[in-house]
Every structure is written in structure tokens, then in C-alpha cells.
Design brief:
Low-confidence stretches: none
Distance between the termini: 90 Å
Length: 61
């Protein structure tokens, strides 16, 4: 069976490449989702901070 080793090598290479792409895709999606969540949290945090600052300003008046 002279073809068994190259075929299994090619299959393993293809499988590991696809697995690597899937891991990269998953990692990229997680990083993207985390950055979106962090941006939303930062946005809400700034709004709450501004709102509390305005409330304190009104309270002082």
C-alpha cells in the first residue's frame, strides 16, 4: 500500500488546518464579542457617570 501514508498525511494536514481555522474563527468571534461588550459597558458607564454628575450638580443647586 504505497498510497496509504501520503493520503493519511494529507487528510491529517487538511483536518488540522480546518481545526486551526475553526479555533481561530472561534477566538476571533470571542475577541470581537468581548470588545463589543466592553464598548457597550464603557458607553453605559460613561452615561451613568455623566448622569450622576448632572444629578449631583442639580442637587448642589
Amino acid at each position: 500500500m504505497p498510497f496509504s501514508i501520503p493520503v493519511s498525511n494529507a487528510c491529517f494536514l487538511l483536518w488540522s488546518t480546518l481545526r486551526g481555522l475553526a479555533y481561530t474563527n472561534c477566538l476571533f468571534r470571542m475577541v470581537l464579542l468581548y470588545s463589543i461588550k466592553a464598548a457597550q459597558f464603557n458607553y453605559w458607564y460613561e452615561n451613568i457617570f455623566l448622569f450622576s454628575g448632572k444629578f449631583e450638580h442639580l442637587h448642589l443647586q
